[in-house]
Amino acid sequence: MMPNLQILRFLAAALVLISHIQHEALKGKFLDLSSYLPWDWIYFAGGVDIFFVISGFIMFAIASEEFQQPGAGWRFFARRLVRIVPSYWMFTTAMIIAAVIFSGHVTHSALSLDHILASYFFLPYENAYGRAYPVLMLGWTLNYEFYFYVVFAVALAFPKRLGLAFLFCFIGVAGVLGILQLVNELPFSYWSNPITLEFLFGVLLAIAYKKGMRLPVPMGWLLFAVGFGIMWMMTKLGIAANFWEYRFLWMGIPALAICAGAVLMKDRGLPVGWGRRQLVLLGDASYAIYLSHPFTLNAVALVWARGGFRSPWTYVCIASIISLIVGVLIHLLIEKPMTAYLNRQVAKCLPPRMVAASPVQ
Hints:
Layout: H1 3-27, H2 47-63, H3 72-101, H4 113-120, H5 140-155, H6 160-179, H7 188-191, H8 197-210, H9 217-236, H10 247-250, H11 252-263, H12 274-284, H13 286-307, H14 312-347
């Protein structure tokens, strides 16, 4: 496991968390918003783009030697299912229950059986409000992840060069169709969103890493800072949060710079110690933080309103801390043991090669 990679995961989750918390604060009728101005120096939802670059990097890093190996695609896909499905299904089920019991307090609570089934199986489906969001709305990113996993699993059936050519051509052509807006019907219009090109950025980064490319520590930090500088510039120029078909450029490029600066450093970046261990733990828990924070925010808002507290910035700070704590607890008490158990069960069905340890998880 690469500490810098795990810390990047936490960074991406934290950016998304900040974006959502500030959005919830603006909706909080129980807060005094007369002097509240959200912190918007960058497009915080760009944490998703960092996630996608990281995902492309990890997928190639863990499977780069699996191309054309018997059953490689199935092995890869099984590992990915174990990693993402149980937690996602758990929180999707929780959202369905909440939508039924608290329909008057849950945004977009209208559900249909087709919508629910599509959500469980990562299929883009238009909900009752005309948007292609799953039941757990932030699961839209998981629909793209699942799509990438399927295409990558198919690519593993070929020799490495041919497999990579297939991967880049398939996702690349689909992305170009999305840029040109030539596909308008679900699910194909969803899968052709150019944001999927960010997975390919991650694959390219992993190829460079595998070939031994490394940056001096100052250069790594500089590239990291440049990535955030571009994000700031895109926000100030009014480009971020607009021109959605080009998001892979105005957020994907800075996300790639941030990830490249972190993972290509010759040194480990941050000094070894308690602080780094906690950041790595938060990175390990990033998936749980991402999935659980909407529930945590709603719970904190309920308590906040009943307590009569009015300060929006205090709410933002307290809700952020509690969301991180809840995510870590869910990771340690539920996600981690559940994933370990399922991996052991899957291992019983796979030959030794299929469960060989990977340097990046």
